[in-house]
Design goal:
Number of domains of chain A: 1
Structural class of chain A: alpha/beta
Radius of gyration of chain B: 24 Å
Helix content of chain B: 40-55%
Number of strands of chain B: 6
CATH architecture of chain A: Alpha-Beta Barrel
Oligomer: heterodimer
Distance between the termini of chain A: 46 Å
Number of helices of chain B: 10
Strand order of the largest sheet of chain A: 1-2-3-4-7-9-10-13
CATH class of the largest domain in chain B: Alpha Beta
Number of helices of chain A: 10
CATH topology of chain A: TIM Barrel
Shape of chain A: globular
Largest interface: A-B, 53 and 51 residues
CATH class of chain A: Alpha Beta
Number of domains of chain B: 2
Strand content of chain B: 5-15%
CATH superfamily of chain A: Divalent-metal-dependent TIM barrel enzymes
Order of helices and strands of chain B: HEHHHHHEEHEEHHHE
Chain lengths: 341, 260
């Protein structure tokens, strides 16, 4: 029988993905972290991690992020796996539940990777049916995450953003905007990352993911690899700034899955996300104040007047961090990641 | 245009490097070669699942060296990909697969050690229930042959080879060169205790005793089997040990007990 947890709402601030090397430290230190997200598949057994997560759930708001439901599988959902996901949700009572716009199961094999769909009416009908099944089973809305991709299908009749927007209309699902995935796919498939974000229904976006990626040079092809193995790069911070400026604050997650660093690095990245959001919202508030002013103000009597009403110091640091980034984003990146390795 | 299910089947086989590959005409990748990009998915699948196997079978990796392990794991993944996304269940067939590798035919300890490591992985993913003490049953009439329920994570393995000795020797950073594997039957009991797995060697009688209890055959049957193997089997000591090792999760009156 499931234990009862106090409902803990996920705030519109930054959280971190809970990874096994950090669980012990999280339990002993209980650091300030807005919220936690876990991969559902890691908590479907009865191992040590499950007991630890129950203890952490008492303190931290929780999001459950599925990676194995294969919502895009033409053969439909694995009902046993969906039932396991239902039990995870029943056990931990998360505030958010999310999955991917992808498929990973076909021909009886689970590929442990998220593959893209051919974006057409047939796929839309299949994914919509699968999302409705999930939402009916879990008795809640789920958020669907955009994908990082290395190929697309020539016969797609719509783009991914159009597909997601229509999926929201048909199923009432929400969206998880993975900003790093947008950057990776936009670079690899050569489309406009900001236009992708702008094409999504903003009210549906209930969560944002941030992560790092690797850059792989194969001949003349520079491909971004979504490896979640480094700090959020400048180009992704810049895209996040674009998203927050348009959407306002959203629960934002720092994901890190390979070469996982010490916990404080993740917490630091989360802090930067919060500071950047604060600086954007501060700027928006300032702009609104100025627009609302009936009479134009006289010029500042001293160059330091602005200091009295300026953004918080840390927010200023965050803005400064994102600022030069935009220029750096255009700098060609080099890497040695070998796809054939 | 292929129906989606057919397209996904073709893609999945391509990702697992099974011929025929998906046609390049079906894919786009900006200015890049789509089939070169497809290799990223092949690499992701192979490397992530290899990492799963390396995490489950760390001592096996050390026994054969990492490059060889990666080679074998890659072939295992291609022939036996996971059938479900719960990767804690992936690798059950790996020890048996190792037995089919010709290169390892004169090193049976490799597959046997992998069998032990899979049992450890299973135990770690199984609940650790609260243990009961003997004192809790002081005033309970349990009949002549109660059922003794043991921790669900308990795994019992018998091997013709010295698997536990080899496994223990490889727990150190530097392996003692004097420790080598040999043909010597070892009966191993292991179970999860909190954050750890405890492993013990058992004698034949104790192994039979634990095995019978684990499979719900009752105390009388378990004792009979143990005594058949060793007339000196000490039932009291065996029971005390089960409680001391926090293996007993419940004691119940047997369904066919006269006192029931």
């Amino acid at each position: 029988m499931s234990r009862a947890f106090h409902p803990l709402a996920i705030p519109t601030s930054a959280g971190i993905g809970l990874r096994s090397p950090h669980i012990s430290e999280m339990l002993t230190r209980r650091p300030s972290a807005g919220w936690l997200e876990v991969h559902a598949e890691n908590y479907m057994g009865d191992g040590v991690g499950v007991e630890a997560l129950e203890r952490l759930r008492e303190t931290y708001p929780l999001s459950v992020h599925g990676v194995g439901l294969s919502l895009g599988s033409a053969r439909g959902l694995d009902r046993d796996h969906l039932e396991r996901l239902r039990k995870v949700c029943e056990r931990f009572q998360p505030d958010l539940v999310s999955e991917h716009l992808a498929w990973s199961v076909a021909d009886g094999a689970y590929l442990n990777d998220l593959l893209p769909l051919r974006y057409d009416e047939e796929a839309l009908a299949i994914v919509a049916r699968n999302v409705e099944t999930v939402q009916e089973t879990l008795k809640r809305q789920v958020l669907i995450e955009n994908l990082s991709a290395y190929v697309a299908f020539a016969d797609s009749s719509m783009n991914e953003a159009e597909f997601l927007a229509e999926l929201v209309t048909r199923t009432g699902c929400g969206l998880l905007l993975d900003v790093n995935n947008v950057q990776v796919s936009a670079h690899n498939l050569q489309y406009d990352a900001k236009a992708f974000i702008d094409a999504l229904p903003e009210q549906a976006i209930g969560e944002i993911h941030l992560a790092g990626h690797a850059t792989n040079q194969v001949g003349t092809d520079t491909v971004l690899i979504d490896d979640h193995g480094s700090r959020v790069p400048p180009v992704v911070w810049a895209l996040y700034e674009h998203a927050i400026t348009r959407l306002g604050p959203r629960p934002t997650l720092i994901e890190w899955d390979t070469e996982v660093p010490v916990l404080d690095v993740l917490l630091g990245e989360a802090m930067w996300a919060d500071m950047l959001t604060a600086s954007i919202m501060f700027g928006r508030k300032q702009a609104a104040r100025q627009a609302a002013a009936i009479k134009p103000r006289p010029a500042s009597p001293t160059p330091f007047e602005g200091v009295r009403t300026s953004m918080p110091v840390l927010a200023a640091f965050a803005a400064a961090k994102a600022g030069p980034v935009m220029a750096n984003a255009l700098t060609p990146m080099e890497g040695r990641y070998d796809v054939a390795a | 245009m292929l129906p989606l299910e057919h397209l996904q089947t073709t893609m999945a086989r391509s990702v697992l490097a099974i011929e025929p590959m998906v046609s390049a005409k079906m894919l786009t990748a900006g200015k890049a070669d789509p089939l070169a990009r497809l290799r990223i998915y092949q690499n992701n699948t192979r490397s992530s699942l290899t990492a799963v196997l390396m995490a489950v079978f760390p001592i096996t990796v050390r026994l054969v060296d990492e490059r060889f392990f990666r080679h074998v794991a890659s072939e295992f993944i291609r022939r036996h990909p996971p059938v479900e996304s719960r990767l804690a269940r992936y690798g059950a067939g790996f020890p048996r697969f190792l037995k089919t590798i010709d290169t390892l035919s004169d090193m049976p300890i490799v597959a046997e050690t992998a069998r032990l490591e899979w049992a450890i992985a299973e135990a770690l993913d199984t609940a650790s229930l609260p243990a009961r003490s003997l004192a809790e049953y002081d005033n309970t009439d349990l009949g002549l042959s109660p059922d003794i329920l043991l921790q669900p994570s308990l795994r019992l393995i018998v091997s013709h080879w010295s698997i536990l000795s080899v496994w223990m020797a490889h727990q150190q950073e530097t392996v003692d060169e004097n420790v080598t594997w040999m043909r010597r039957p070892e009966r191993v009991a292991l179970w999860r205790s909190g954050n750890y797995v405890r492993l013990f060697l058992l004698d034949r009688a104790s192994f039979a005793f634990w095995h019978s209890l684990k499979h719900g055959l009752g105390l009388e049957h378990a004792t009979g089997r143990a005594l058949a193997l060793d007339p000196a089997f000490d039932l009291v000591s065996a029971l005390v040990r089960l409680f001391r090792d926090r293996l007993v999760t419940d004691v119940r009156v047997a369904a066919n007990s006269p006192s029931n």
